[in-house]
Structures are given as C-alpha cells and as structure tokens.
Amino acid sequence: MPLQLQPNLKEPGQRYFREFSPGDDFYEALIDTHRDLTDEQSEALNARLILLLANQIGDISLLRDALRLARQGV
Question: Does the pTM exceed 0.70?
Fold first, then answer.
C-alpha cells in the first residue's frame, strides 16, 4: 500500500464543507493535548503518539517511507 500524501482526515458521521476542515479539527485537538505541558512532557507525548500511530499503521515499509519523507528538507 503506498503512502497516502493527499488529505485523508475524516470523522465518521461528520460532514465537512471544506477539504481542510478535518485537518483543522485534528490540529486543534493536537494543540489542546499539548496545552499546559512542559517542553519535556510535550516531547514525551509526541514520542508516545508516534509509537501508537505507527502500531496502528503496522506496515513497516510504509512507516519507512513516512520516515524518509519526514526527514527530507530537515
């Protein structure tokens, strides 16, 4: 399965009128999750989130592609 590079965020049962709206909802939830954390706590949260989502994806080759793309330009 190739890495999904187009907007692909949605919430079952929710209707969106703009393609970016689900991404905005996720970004707001992500920022809220980090609110009032120290930098160290925020980094730990990010590490845990990455591992949880990687486990959900489960496909090592797909995860390697994502790591490679994420590192480009850094």
Answer: yes
